[in-house]
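ok new one. same drill as before - structure tokens go in, u give me an amino acid for every spot. 317 of them this time. try not to just spam alanines like last time pls lmao
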């Protein structure tokens, strides 16, 4: 029976790791199963801003559409969340009741958007209220577009600094909305309105009127399955220079969920470097290969509150 290689996560890091494994002959070594929460193939998250602005369609940003999995004899369970791992019996347990055995496991669960602790963010039921959005996946972009297309939704506030915030602001502006950016996100104190979003309250600043709020206040490694499964977790899942999880012989982690030498990376280049080293070891292609870390890019935050114009981000006076 072939060695069972299971990948939890079908995002950029998980799919890239599989691509690297296939490039090293992994298709002949393993039966590969991938489990992803999103109900489709793998896509380029860096292109979400283009989808939001209308510069690209959904299909334009896919890196590996569904036929790729079939062509490479990969079993894909899409739209499936993994709840826990039994590292003793070597099984993965999914929320839909599915149980998948593995010989080698790769965890590539990525990250979750960070939601700051401000009032008015949630509905009485505990869910994020209508009119408030995160911007980290394709479905987020689709929801924002549907909401922004409604005629009475003309003003938006993007809360948080960094490139995702600018992309969200530019995308909404391209759709004809008036956009204000609030950064850092800690300056926001409340989302205003009861039946619908009407504004954003700021510390030491006048309130901003808006119909929708997009939160791009960073992300946190998605380590929930690793925590409940008893794996080594600090900020992320702790891995060594081979991307092997600490104290585990047959479990690896890669991408935004992994913590290597104290660092957690959220950009593409480190994910690619990690995937190559992981593939070297999983396939035995180069057992001397090591991942020694990547430069951490710096983001210079802009002004406290800004309006997005056609040529840049200008302070609101």
């Amino acid at each position: 029976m072939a060695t069972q290689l299971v990948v939890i996560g079908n995002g950029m890091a998980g799919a890239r790791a599989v691509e690297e494994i296939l490039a090293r002959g992994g298709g002949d070594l393993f039966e590969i199963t991938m489990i992803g929460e999103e109900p489709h193939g793998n896509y380029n998250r860096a292109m979400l801003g283009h989808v939001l602005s209308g510069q690209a369609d959904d299909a334009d940003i896919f890196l590996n559409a569904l036929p790729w999995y079939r062509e490479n004899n990969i079993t894909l369970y899409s739209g499936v969340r993994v709840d826990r791992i039994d590292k003793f019996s070597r099984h993965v347990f999914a929320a839909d009741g599915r149980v998948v055995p593995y010989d080698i496991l790769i965890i590539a669960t990525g990250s979750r958007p960070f939601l700051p602790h401000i009032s008015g963010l949630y509905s009485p039921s505990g869910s994020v209220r209508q009119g408030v959005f995160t911007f980290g996946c394709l479905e987020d972009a689709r929801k924002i577009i549907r909401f922004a297309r409604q005629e009475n939704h003309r003003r938006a506030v993007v809360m948080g600094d960094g490139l995702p915030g600018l992309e969200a602001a530019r995308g909404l502006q391209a759709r004809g909305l008036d956009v204000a950016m609030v950064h850092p996100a800690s300056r926001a104190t409340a989302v205003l309105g009861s039946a619908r979003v009407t504004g954003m309250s700021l510390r030491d600043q006048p309130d901003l009127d808006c119909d929708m709020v997009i939160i791009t206040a960073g992300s946190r490694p998605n380590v929930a399955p690793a925590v409940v499964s008893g794996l080594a977790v600090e900020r992320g899942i702790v891995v060594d220079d081979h991307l092997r999880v600490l104290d585990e012989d047959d479990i690896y982690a890669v991408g935004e969920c992994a913590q290597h030498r104290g660092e957690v990376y959220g950009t593409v280049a480190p994910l690619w470097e990690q995937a190559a080293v992981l593939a070297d070891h999983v396939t035995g292609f180069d057992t001397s290969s090591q991942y020694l870390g990547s430069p951490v890019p710096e983001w210079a935050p802009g002004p406290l509150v800004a309006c997005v114009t056609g040529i840049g981000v200008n302070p609101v006076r």
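The chain has eight helices and 23 strands. and btw The mean pLDDT is 91.
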